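Journal club prep, notes for RB
We'll compare a predicted complex against what the paper describes. Inputs for the pyridoxal-5'-phosphate case:
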Amino acid sequence: MSRSHELFERACRVIPGGVNSPVRACRSVGCEPLFIASGSGARITDADGNTYVDYVQSWGPLLLGHAHPAVTKAVAEAAGKGTSYGAPCEAEVVLAEMILEALPKMDMVRMVNSGTEAAMSALRLARGVTGRAKVVKFDGGYHGHGDAFLAAAGSGVATFSIPGTPGVPDAVVADTLLAPYNDLAAVKGLFERFGPEIAAVIVEPAAGNMGLVLPEPGFLEGLRETCSKAGSLLILDEVITGFRASYNGAQGRFGIDPDLTVLGKIIGCGLPVGAYAGKRRYMERISPMGGIYQAGTLSGNPLAMAAGIAGLGVLKGADYLGLEGRVEALCADLEGILRGKGIDVVINRLASMFTMFFCKGAVRNFAEAKAVDTERYARFYRHARACGVNLAPSAFEVAMPSFAHGVEDFDALRRVAETFGG
Ligand code: PLP
């Protein structure tokens, strides 16, 4: 019996489903999860001593790879000085300055502990400053598991085909308006009907939770214009794209000027963190400057701040275009290899992240993403795992190679495609 299996059996007795976040359970790909003992660079090693090239990288935070020396050193040093103060410390200021320098359209930032918390807080702020209740989100968009966002959400909710979730009262999602991703006409239709009641539109500038779906030209610009006209706030959820689409996020890459930005993942380089940033006139409404309450015992945690400062410090000088070129070449090869075998596949890519959709046509929204061959993805996942490559255990997620991925790590995935039976 493998150690991972043994641990999973124990876990299932004490943790719901044996995991602390649903997709990790690997159910949609018909496997048990690997229990990870350590990670280094592009690789992870499981509890049985097997090593895998890791394309998950903790679902995005590890753009520098596992256990980057600058990050681990900073965390160890910070830990030696105390793990939490419940009072301000210099590192919070430094990381806030670094984030705002990278996102010049944003004036102030508040740290929280996860992307979920950041998205919930940004929505509260948008509702507070506009005095309006409704929020527009997109089918298959995921903004964490805050109640208001759990209508037609992506990520784990998409993986399990749950339309919403029990436990969220109808009244809570009654103010959540839905539109298909990339469908500006649908958004305009919602604004014609409900404009004066809409506090905000929240959007992933490249959707990363229905697999990767890119914004079509004019979509984000159209959202900006529609929000401005109606006095609604545009919230860009850059939890995935922040510091990945470019060092300046998707907003820098696409030239979008949001009112608020939701962050997480890379800004903590693997430590639990989130943040929301925004225009000064809105951010000044947050308690204690304004009356919109939001707080956190561990917010601005010195370990998370130290990891973020060290990681962003390295990323600032990193060769983003070089990594993008390597990933672009990988995706072209994967498409070529698989199509050469008669397998229908479409790869959506932005910067260093990509999704292999096993389908024929383009994937531009959740409806098209849901039509992919999830069984074939599950077979590809299991084959990759048997070949020593760890992919996201769901057809609706994104591969997130890191700066630590070398030629042999990209070649490992090429070999998986070459030896895949279909
Ligand atoms: N927003 C987006 C776009 C995400 O992808 C996620 C998580 O994957 C979240 C919000 C929630 O972040 P967290 O899992 O840190 O709560």
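Talking point for the session: The CA atoms of residues 131 and 369 lie 35 Å apart.
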